[in-house]
Amino acid sequence: MDGAQTPYRIVIAGAGYAGLRATLRLSARLDEGSGVELTLVDRRDHHQVLTEVARVAGGARPAGETRIPLARVLDERVRFVRTGVTGFDLAGRRLLTEHGPLPYARLVLALGSRPNDFGIPGLAERALTLWSVDDARRVLAAVDAQMAAAVAAPDPGERRRRMTVVIGGGGATGVELAGELAEELPRLAERHALPPDDCAVVLIDAGPTILGGSSPELIARATAILADLGVAVRTDARIARASAEGFVLESGETIAGGVFVWAGGVKVPDIVARSGLPVGHNGRVKVDRYLRALDHPAIFVAGDLASIPDPDTGRALLPTAQSALQQGETVATNLLAEIAGEELVPFSFLDKGFVVSVGGRSGVAEVGGRAFGGRPAQLLKHAIEWEYRQSVKRLRGWSPIGAGVARVQGR
Ligand SMILES: Cc1cc2nc3c(=O)[nH]c(=O)nc-3n(C[C@H](O)[C@H](O)[C@H](O)COP(=O)(O)OP(=O)(O)OC[C@H]3O[C@@H](n4cnc5c(N)ncnc54)[C@H](O)[C@@H]3O)c2cc1C
Which of 49, 191, 339, 347 is the S-S candidate for 66 at Cβ 3.0 to 4.6 Å? Predict the structure, then answer.
């Protein structure tokens, strides 16, 4: 390690699942006298519990509950800089931010991903996204505004159009949003004195099924729950463009609605795409088995940004919170190993399963190769959310091996 620098500066960019986990682990295990300066950078002053934002869009959870203020969870030894990351000075080992450059001995890049509209014409202008708590609030506000407009619509067809939400992308995010909105729309309609039966949610996917890549049993269960909730699922329906009227499919058919949400894919932030770091699929940064950017050993990459091959499929691991957390752990372990002069450990993903809530009372899950659905899956989702929140609180000052023992003394 670069022992010449004092203090030894570790800068973590991004307080999402990967970055916050790495920060909490490091701060719990580094002693005052370690000579390490730990800086966390994020443009937000809170951590977003993204896995819960579909509930915000559906009105089932207040936005504030899905934001964890960083001041409440960070150890006082962590220097938090609230600013936007604007670029990288790779040669000079500086992270460029709106507040000026931050020099580092080691950088952890954990800036997450962005919605990818795949260049589909009109999509960026016409459709909302669901990639933050604010996005979720915008979706709910847009639905409410369309309901208000529907009250004034003289034509029943126009009224129904305004009361229809169309979601592009039948992955986990699209399915969760469809389930939440299918339950919330009729309630909103009643509040606006509109006929609840006029509401509709349409979920569109270009592939042959929703939740592509999942087991047939899980897909069948999710499809059945959505049907019970009244969601119209359209598969093999590729969106060619978005117009003022709706999503225009390659077949020429227009799926009309009042609110459009795109949940069809992700890409890396532009600043990472043009950073000069080696990139792979979808612009994700290629890393070695210790999660260091290829050819840039001073930079660790974790979470949605990292392109990590799945040993089973050879394809990049899916961008999930579960995987981001595990990568945050590995990065913290390896930073500590470097400081202690020990060997780094390779990252290995432990797939604990997959769970998707479908509405407020049901869901689907696959754990240990067994698919199940209904209330137990929804309860499992709640349990995971609860456990995650507890882990964020508990990690502050917590050491897995024993107080003091695992704390790194000096470099
Ligand atoms: C609606 C939704 C539901 C999901 N549900 C699940 C689920 O149930 N299970 C699951 O495993 N995964 C789920 N995911 C995926 C999961 O949320 C992501 O894989 C995970 O958040 C990735 O973690 P990360 O640390 O890489 O990035 P993030 O958690 O996105 O964190 C990135 C951080 O970087 C900050 N940042 C970004 N750019 C800048 C910049 N330029 N300057 C300063 N700060 C910046 C952001 O503010 C953010 O705090 C869901 C995602 C969404 C959107």
Answer: 49
